[in-house]
Amino acid sequence: MSIEVRKNFQISQDSDYILKPDSEEEVSIIVKDLYEKNLPAEIIGSKSKNFIGNKLQCAKILDLSQLSGVVEYLPEELYIKVKACTPIAEIEEIIKKNNQQLAFEPIDFGYIISSKSNKGTAAGYLSCNFSGSRRFKSGSVRDHVLGFRAINGKGDIIKSGGTVVKNVTGYDLSKLVTGSFGTLVALTEITFKVLPTKDSSSTLVIHEEDKEEIAKLFNNIQSSSNEISGSVYVPKEPIDKKYVQNREKIFKFNDLKNEGSFLAMRMEGSKKSIDERIRDLTIELNLKSKKKSFLDVHQSVLFWEKINNLEIFSNTQNCLARVVIPPSKCIDLMKYLGSEYKYYIDWCGSLFWIEILDTSEEKLSTFKDYIIKMTGYLTIIKNSENSIPIKDIFTINETRLHLSKKIKESFDPKRIFNPGKMYRNI
Amino acid sequence: MSELVLPKVDESTILNRNKIVSKLKKITKLENVLDHNDEIKPYETDALSAYKQKPLVVVLPENTQEVSKILKYCNEEKIKIIPRGAGTGLSGGALPLQDAILLGLGKFNKILEIDFDNKCVTAQPGVTNLSITHAVQHRGFYYAPDPSSQLACSIGGNVAENSGGVHSLKYGTTTNNILGVELVLMDGTICRLGGKTLDQEGYDLLGLVCGSEGLLGVITEVTVKILKKPQTVRAALIGFPSIEDGGNCVTDIISRGIVPAGMEIMDKALIEATDNFCKAGYPRDAETLLIVELDGTKSEVDELIKNVSEIAKRNNSSSIKLSNNEKERLSFWAGRKAAFPACGAMAPDYYCMDGTIPRGKLSEALKEIKRLSKKYNLPVANAFHAGDGNLHPLIMFDGNNKDQLKRTEEFGAEILKYCVKLGGVLTGEHGVGIEKRELMCEMFNDNDIQQQLKIKKSLDEKNLLNPGKVYPILRKCAEEGRIHVHRGEEKFPDLPRF
Fold first, then answer.
1. Same domain flag for B242 and B358
2. Among residues B132, B75, B145, which one has the least CA distance to residue B103?
3. Which residue range(s) make up the domain with B439?
C-alpha cells in the first residue's frame, strides 16, 4: 500500500464506521485491526441480498464493493476469475459474448424487493448458494465455484481450490464457504466455472390441475433421458386480496394458454434435437391427451427469466419462504398447502417458494416441524412488512449446530464476520 | 523409496497393545479384531504399495454404533486410528502406523436403500462404486463418477478422496454426485450431513468432508444421486501428427461450446505401448491420439460427433474413426484402459503422477516432461484426461537400481511442480495422502495450510484420525514417492488405472 493510500485508508477508518477497502491487502489490514480490537463487522457488497438472514447491528460495516472487476477470463478453459464484488450482471454480459453462461442460473432477488432487476455481486451469490431452475440438472452455485481467495477472521489472506475442475489438493473450502452468508471469511476473489450456452431452447407447457398428476409428471421428467433442464409448476393464484394477483400479467405470452395451473419443462440444445425430444416426451410422459402450450426460443428464454427473477412475488409485502424437500414428498407438501397459499414449485418438485401470511411463531414453527419431518429444510427469505422479527430464519439440528460452531471458530475465532447472521452464537 | 517420515510413535500405546485389543474385543465381536501377524499383513499397505507398515491391530466393526464406540475410546485414550475402505487408494491415504488401530470398513458392505422416487441410493461405505450402478441399471439408471478402479474401490473411499473418473468434465466428481453421509467424528458423535434433498442449509459440511481423505471423520453411510443413462453414447478416435495439433483440437472443441462426456489424449509412447500390449488398432504413425466421447440424445450426439470430426480435420488430424456401435466404442477405449499394464510390461517399475493443468497448457506440459525425461534419462508415457486437464505421466524405471529410483522421484516431483507453475494443481483425483504431502507447500502458503489445519483441529483436537497424511510433516518440499509398481506387483494389478 502506498503512503497516500495508507493515509486515505486511515482517515476513512477513523472517521467512518463504514470501512471500504479497495484491495485484498487493505481488507487484511482492516480485519487484523478488527480482530485486535474485538469489533464485529457486517460484510456487504451491493446489498442486493442482505435482507436475507438475521438483522445485524455491528460496530463496523465492511463494504467490499470496491473489489470489483474481472481478473482473468479464459473461455477455452471454462473459467472466469473475478474480484469478489464484481456484479453478476457484468459477468454474465462478458461471458455471453463467448456464448457461455453461469450454468447455476443466478436468481434475481431484485424483483421481490423493488420490482426491478438487482442481481448483486459474485460474492453475494456464493454466500447464499441459491440456484435457479437448472439446479437439478447442472448443480448449484457450490458446484460451480472452482476456487477463492479471502481473509479469515484473524486477517490472514487464505486461498483454496484453483481454476481446474479436477482438484483434490487439500480440503475443498470452496464448498464450505459457499452458503455461509459471510460468516466465515471476507471474500476477495472468486473463480467460477462457466459452461457453453446451448444453441436453442424451447418450453413445453402442460395445463394441469390434478396435483397427483403433477407429482407423477415431475417424477417421470426426472426419470427421462430426454435431458430436461428446468421444470416448474405454477398453480392458480389463491383468491385472496392479501396476495398480489400478478400471475396472469407476468406469464403473458403469445403462445401460452393462460388459464389455470401449469407445469412447464425446458429443453435446451439444437433445434433438431429439441423437436425430437418433444416427440419422444409426448409418448414417454403420456401427454397426447393433455392440454399443451409450446413456447419457442424467444418466449422460452423470457419465461425462465421470469421464473428465476421470482417475478411472481414481485413487490410482495408478505413473508417469503424457500423450502427444499426430497422430490417424492412434493405431493404431500402440495396437499398441505392446498389452495390457500401462493406458491410455485421449481427444481422438478424439490424446491417450493411460498408466500406465508400468518407468521406467528406458533404457525411458523408448526410448518417448520412439518418440513423437518419430511427431511427437508426451510429458509425465511423475507419477513412480512412491519412484523416482529422471526426467531429462526434457517433450519438446523443440534449436532450440526455444534459442528458449525467449531467450523466458525476455526475461521473466525472472535466472531468478527456477520455474527448471528445465520444462527445464534455463529 | 525415500525414507518416509511418519508421526512420532507413541510407545505407551504399543506397550498397551494387549489392553487395547481386549477393549476392542468388548466393543465388537471377537472375530472382528485381528491381532495376529498373519491376519494383519494384508492391511499393511494400500495401492501405494511402496510403503508398508503393520498396524497395531486391525478392527472390522459391523455397525455405526461400534465405530462410534471405537473412536470415542481412541479419543479418550489418545490412540491413533486409520480408516480404510477397499484399500485401492493410490496416494497412501490408508497407510497404517505402528501405533495406530486400523479401522477397516469392509463389513459395511450393504446397499441399504434404492429410492427411485428420489433418484438416489443409500449404501454402506464398503459397497463398491460399480455395484451401485449394478443395483439400479435394470431401470436404466447409473451412478456417474467412474474411477477406473470402480470394480473394487468403495463408495466410502470415493467420498474420502472425492474420486473422479473419465467423465468428470460433464458429470463432475464424487462431491457433485452425493446427497448425504452419516459420519462419526473422532469424539464418537454420529452426525448426518445432507440427506435426500438437493443442497443443504447452513455450512456445506458434506462438501468439506468429501475429499478430506479420512482426516475429519469416518463415513458410515453414503447417499448418492443416480442418473438416467444417456440415450446414445458415441466415440471418435482421432490421430494427430503433433502434440500441438492434438492440444489445439481439444481447446477448439471446448471453445465451440461442446462439452464431451470424456476426452482423452495419449502420447506416442503410450500409443505404441498400449498397441503392443493389447492390439488396440491405434494409428501408430500418430504423435498424439485423442478419444472424444459424446453422450445424450441421438440426434444431438450424431450432430456433435460430426462437428468434432470437422474440428479435428481443421486441426490437421491424420486419422479419424467414429464408433457406430457399442462394440466399436469399447474397442476405442481398450488400449487406453490398458495404459498401466502396458507400461508395466515395458519396464520393471513405473510411477504414475496425477497433476492437473489448464487444458490449453497441454503441449507445454508434454514438452517439459519430454525435456525432463532426457534430463533424468528415464522413459515416460503420458495419458491425459484432456477434458478436465488431469495428467497422468507414467515414468518407467528399475526399482532395484537405487540411482534410477532417486532420479524417478526427482523427475516426478519436478512434473508436479511444473503443473502448479502452469496454473494447475498437485493432484486431480488420487489424493495427497502420504505421497504428495511434502509438496503441498508448492501450492499453498503457510496461511492456507494453517487454516486447513485449524479445521482439522476443530474436529479432531488431538490429531488422532489418520495423522501424517495430506499435510507436510517435514515442513519442506521434499520429493516423496508416487505410485510405485514393482515387477507388476501392484496391489490389484488387474484393475484398470487411468
1. no
2. B75
3. 341-486
pLDDT tens-digit series, residues B407-451: 988 999 999 999 999 999 999 999 999 989 989 999 999 999 999
DSSP A85-151: T-BHHHHHHHHHTTTEE-TT----THHHHHSS----BHHHHHHH----TTHHHH--GGGGEEEEEEE
Residue A70 CA, chain-centre distance (Å), reads 21
SS3 content of chain A, % helix, strand, coil (to 5): 35, 25, 40
d(CA B498, CA B489): 17
Where residue B338 falls among pLDDT bands split at 50, 70, 90? confident
| Residue B83: Cβ within 10 Å count | 26
- Nearest C-alpha in B relative to A96: B257
Q: Contact, B49 vs B453, CB < 8 A? A: no
Q: Which of B313, B437, B417 is nearest to B48 (CA)?
A: B437
Q: Which domains does chain A have, with CATH numbers?
A: 70-196 (3.30.465.10), 199-395 (3.30.70.2190)
All three cell numbers of A401, joined, read 449446530
CATH number at residue B49: 3.30.43.10
pTM comes to 0.94
Q: Does A22 touch chain B (CB under 8 A)?
A: no
Q: Is B192 on the interface with A (CB under 8 A)?
A: yes
Say if the Cβ atoms of B191 and A167 lie within 8 Å. no
Query: Which B positions 465-494 lie with beta carbon below 8 A of chain A?
Result: 470
CA gap B119, A158 in Å, rounded: 37
Residue B440 lies inside a defined structural domain of this protein: yes
3-state DSSP helix/strand/coil percent for chain B, to nearest 5?
40, 20, 40
And the C-alpha cell for B170?
Answer: 460433464
Domain count of chain B? 4
